[in-house]
Amino acid sequence: MPPRIGQVRRIVSAQLRYWHLDPLIDRAALGVTELLTNVHRHAAPDKSCTVEIELMLGRLTVSVRDHDPRLPEMQDVDPSATSGRGLAMVAAVSESWGVRPDGPSGKVVWFTLPTSAPMAPPARAVRRRAETPAHRFADLDHALDGRRSGHAPARSAVAG
């Protein structure tokens, strides 16, 4: 696994700590590691990608965008195989996951995590203020060329 994957995993973990979402760190780090490893192993023509994390309406979405139009599929893997379980692991640790084409030459693979456990309804009605939406994006942008853009979501570029 390239060292850059570990660096992106640490960036995602730090952002989740900043958002006070510590209980999600292990699952988000595992999911992003698996998706980045897939880019490193399978993406063509290049191994660069962008990671975005979005926190909105009680849900964390982690997306990895690359430049390979081939859409991944979860496959049955022989029990003795040492690889091929990445998407199954992402599915196991996430609330939902998916993949979508991104223009003519790329795709986005994503997964979601709920930010809190479902709560039982209160015994009696309680008046609450409307909650404001959570953070939409963090201000992180790490590109391979070292330049930062001020308007980017929580994002990191990774080269294989």
Brief sketch in words of this structure:
The chain contains 3 helices and 6 strands, in the order ααββαββββ.
Outline the structure in words.
With 160 residues, the protein is of the alpha+beta class. The protein is built from 3 helices and 6 strands; from the N terminus they run ααββαββββ. It has a 6-stranded mixed beta sheet with strand order 3-4-2-1-6-5, with helices on one face. A hairpin with a 5-residue loop joins strand 3 and strand 4. The chain is globular. The termini are close together.
Main attributes of the structure:
alpha+beta, 160 residues, globular, six-stranded mixed sheet, 3 helices, 6 strands
- pLDDT averaged residue by residue: 76
Q: What letter string, H or E per element, gives the SSE order?
A: HHEEHEEEE
- Name the poorly predicted regions: 118-153
Outline type: globular
Q: Percent helix among the residues?
A: 25-40%
Which strand-content bin applies to the residues?
A: 15-25%
Strand order of the largest sheet: 3-4-2-1-6-5
Largest sheet: 6 strands, mixed
First-to-last CA distance: 9 Å
Q: What is the total tally of β strands?
A: 6
Radius of gyration: 17 Å
Number of helices: 3
What structural category arises from helix and sheet content? alpha+beta
